[in-house]
Amino acid sequence: MCGIVAYLGNKQAYPIIIEGLRRLEYRGYDSAGVSLLNGSIHTYKKKGKVQELVNFAENSDKNGTVGIGHTRWATHGKPDDLNAHPHVSGDGKISLIHNGIIENYAVLKEALAELGHEFKSETDTEILVHLIEEYKKRDNLPIEEAVRKALDKAVGAYAIVVIDEDEPDKLVGARKSSPMVLGIGDDEYFLASDASPIIKYTNRVIYLKDEEIVTIKRGEEFTIRTIDNKLQEHKIQELDLKLEELEKGGYQHYMLKEIHQQPITVAESMKGRLNADEGWVQVGGMQEYMNRFINADRIILIACGTSWHAALYAEYLFEDLARIPTEVEYASEFRYRNPIINKNDVIIALSQSGETADTLAALTMAKEKGALLYGVVNVVGSSIARFTDCGSYTHAGPEIGVASTKAFTSQLTVLTLMALNLGYKKGTITESYYRRLIVALDSIPNKITRVLALSDQIKNIAAEIKNAQNALYLGRGYNFPIALEGALKLKEISYIHAEGYPAAEMKHGPIALIDMYMPVVVIATNISAYEKVVSNIQEVKARKGIVIAIVAEGDKQIKEIADFTIEIPATEEPLSPLLSSIPLQLLAYHIAVMRGCDVDQPRNLAKSVTVE
Ligand code: G6P
What is the mean pLDDT of residues 536-549? Predict the structure, then answer.
């Protein structure tokens, strides 16, 4: 949450920072601001998206080759101009941007107020810049030393960048529990929440570690020190990220592009891990730890949001195919409920961003108990990827739409491969079923292409139900998590209240809500529960609900009773979510567009939730 970007080099900083902020807007879009250093500090900040800031600063002096910028997702203090970052010190000489939360800000604020500091905003961040100012002046310190001392007093999470009018050729950045990447160009440096603002200029980066402070000085080699002042060795990584991956590529929205990329991204998730001709699956990250997996007492999956739905799918898979007791936990609950974790447990963390604060904290707790930590992560080099003992990248490429789509189906793919690999090694699936599933999985990308061809039909259905105030999503077995995910997609981007339920549970509550205005989306592709789902549809129709059924191609029975049917290619039941989730993404997308919603940046949400 919150995106930060900073520049020091020979170019004008403002356009680089604005472009970077646009790329980071997925992290929050409540307000945006910049500070530029050109003799003195010029700060412009504005409530709303980056474009509001651009309009606001249009006729102002934007010169300067050093600068910092911020796009905010509000935590402390409402989204307005005053609470927008950067925040400046009392004397106006130091400016700071921050992603995270300073938990002890109230105590610090009181102490600083006693020393005469006056605050303009309601943010925790402003306290930090005053604290830095206090150390700088009191002890006559260079800015990086003042930052180090201030951070030593701060409790909480931060990624910050600081500039100081008295030392105009310096950028100081630091992080703890919030991400920060240093980009190293030719005589120019970048600091940002992720590599997307940097990649246009350089692919040479360093991911800062917790409690590291980087000092960049024009014309000198940068240094990285820990908060207790130990000089750190550093290793520059070369990123393999292309600029086109960060563009819309002709689509109206990132979300639509990402939905349509799924034949490729699912194939990427399988690449090198599945060979249908030779009939094998092998997930690299698991091999070294295969015995730990096979002998695990339990697999515990931890995640948040859409990733939690993928985790729930994995519970069905791992128990069905690999016969390993599996539990699924919301990371935020798990970390605080004193759970029993043993060293024979395997903890799998699922995360698109690899930065979700609750998931990271839950992993930290599990590590202390000696469990094996496995990460299924999309963003290469992210905190969760680095913190876990081992893991697999999902290889879906950058996902920019706030509502997750391609990252989700890539998670499902990797989890399926893991379950197949495990089931085969453990001997819990027959050779013939193993091979059948491999062949079926191999054909999924082509089948996704066929589902995507239904987009216009789904758009017509969207037109029929776009004014609904509520919607219900039903699924059974492997498709229950998909019903939850379908409902989440709709509420995230169209603001229609939607709930997902196991189809049979409908009778225990939601049925009371059904009337002629209630769309009920039913995933009815499961072969094993088909007749039961048909009964559920009858129950909805008997109460005049509008049934939209996702069925397998050639289905006749449901077609006769449902109001709308969306026919998708048949596949093996455990793999059906890889296809059934696609029409639900398209349905939510078309409804949101028709309702005039901001599909890529829905209100109040952020893509990467780096605060609790
Ligand atoms: C936010 C995003 C969701 C995402 C969730 C977990 O809420 O808006 O799309 O599913 O965080 O994020 P992660 O990066 O850990 O998968």
Answer: 94
> Please, how many CA atoms are within 13 Å of residue 295, restricted to the half-sphere of its CB?
9
Report the half-sphere exposure of 423 (CA within 13 A, side-chain side): 27
Contact 503, 454 (CB under 8 A): no
What is the predicted pLDDT for the residue at 250? 87
Q: Is the pLDDT of residue 231 over 80?
A: yes
Catalytic status, residue 47: no
pLDDT bin (cut points 50, 70, 90) of residue 381 is confident
Distance CA 574, CA 275 (A): 19
Q: Is the CB of 326 under 6 A from ligand 1?
A: no
- Which atom of ligand 1 is found nearest the CA of 379? 14
Tell how far the Cα of 72 is from the centroid of ligand 1, in angstroms: 17
Average pLDDT, the chain: 95
pLDDT for residue 400 is more than 90: yes
- Alpha-carbon distances of 453 from 266, 568, 586, rounded to whole Å: 17, 10, 11
- Give distance in angstroms: CA of 605 to centre of ligand 1: 10
CA 268 to centroid of ligand 1, rounded, Å:
21
Instruction: From 536, 417, 432, select the one nearest 483 (Cα to Cα).
Output: 536
Q: pLDDT per residue over 477-496, tens digit each? A: 999 999 999 999 999 999 99
The CA–CA distances, whole Å, from 194 to 189, 258, 353 equal 14, 19, 10
Pocket of ligand 1 contains residue 330 by CB under 6 Å: no
| pTM of the entire predicted model | 0.86
Q: Whose CA is nearest to atom 8 of ligand 1?
A: 607
CB 579 within 8 A of CB 325: no
pLDDT score recorded for residue 361: 92
324 in helix, strand or coil? coil
**Parallel, antiparallel, or unpaired for β 564-568 and 546-552?**
parallel
Quote the pLDDT of residue 550: 97
Please indicate whether residue 123, judged by its CB atom, sits closer than 6 Å to ligand 1: no
**d(CA 353, ligand 1 centre) in Å:** 7
Report residue 329 as tokens.
């936990």
Q: Are 462 and 594 in contact (CB under 8 A)?
A: yes
Q: Which ranges constitute the DSSP H helices of 430-500?
A: 431-442, 444-452, 455-465, 480-494
Tokens of 338: 């004193």
17 touches 171 (CB < 8 A): no
Asked whether the predicted pLDDT for residue 413 surpasses 80, the reply is yes
